[in-house]
Amino acid sequence: MGRTVFYVGGFEAIGGIEAFLFDLLTSLPTHGTKRSMLVWANDLPALHGIEQAGTEVLRTPLRWGCRFGLPDRMLFARFGKRLQDADRIVFAKIPPRAIFERIVRTARARRPEPAELVFVTPYRPREMWPDGMPDYIVQGLDRILVQSSEFADDLRQMGFSGAVDLVPYIPPPAATTPVAAPREDRSFRLGFLGRFVAQKNLFYLLDIVAALQPGAIELHMFGSGGDEGALREAAGKRGLPVTFHGAVPREAVPATIDSCDAFINPSVSEGQCLVAFEVLSRGRPFIATPVGAIPEILGKGRLGVTIPLDDATRAAAIVRAFLEEWNEGDWRAGDIATTYAGAYPRAEIISDYEKLL
User: Rounded CA gap, 183 and 327, in Å?
Assistant: First the structure.
């Protein structure tokens, strides 16, 4: 029986790569391999779910000193010996260089064969490494799993010569009977679901809302994060039609999505963007900036529209055109869910991961 170790490092309560890991490790069959996951994190329900599904979770609680790599150093010091027995080491996040290079040496020294070192990209490579992929990562990894053909192109341009496999994150199942929210007695509800952090570009989203005609939409924001206070203050001062709903537990995401007519994501950087999958699985169109895998996702059919990263006036014009199409009866929930299900067959994707990992 083989052993696969997932070296994750920091594991957050809310995050796309964490949601991916939960979906992956609770979906893969347990026969044929032993799985361990190394994380520094609080005692989170997601980790218990992963453990109950058959993956050994090895955790340390230290979360301060990230700038100096202290949490990863403690994690490696305590559980690094587990890596010596691994046939495959999977990184969801690249640890600090000193730790990564020690893991590479451990993997290369394994006998009779070295362990395979695999990385699952959390963001588009050129967005992660705008100055180029560091040589120690290029030379240390054997295989990289990407969620978009453009990600693969980035890696080749950066000099990575190992194996590159295109496999999306595990998609949620499409709703068989998508709920179409009634709109006769209210404005169009545009939602945002995610973290309130700089990467999500949410002050730009407020600029877009301000550029739309009064009464055209209501913006409903679901999530939390460091920018929440400033966003609330900015929306209030500008008199924008924004409602803040707070963080949403994962089990409540489908109902949250059903409560809105469409969702918007103005991020400056993304990977697969699991929120896009969650939105489309409920038959809701997705409006987003063309970062990460989003262009490829929206290129699979009539699933949504893209907006520019830094032009609120033009973005608002695109949203207005979208609203006109919506009011004419386009963007039907059933069509969106069906297109999404055909583009991202869940069972086949889980099978791909089983073969690769």
Answer: 10
Phi, psi (rounded to 5 degrees) for 247: -65, 150
Per-residue pLDDT, 182: 58
Q: What is the pLDDT of residues 135-188, one digit of tens each?
A: 999 999 999 999 999 999 999 999 999 999 999 999 999 998 877 665 667 889
Summarize the confidence of residues 281-297 as an average pLDDT.
95
Token pair of 292, please? 């990460």
- Kindly list the structural domains of the chain, giving each domain's residue range(s) and its CATH number in brackets, ordered by start: 2-171+345-356 (3.40.50.2000), 188-342 (3.40.50.2000)
Can you give the length of the chain in residues?
357
Six-digit token pair at 24? Answer: 């992956």
**Residue 342 zone, left/alpha/beta (φ > 0; ψ -120 to 50; rest):** alpha
**Cβ atoms < 10 Å from Cβ of 215:** 9
Rg of the Cα trace of the chain?
21
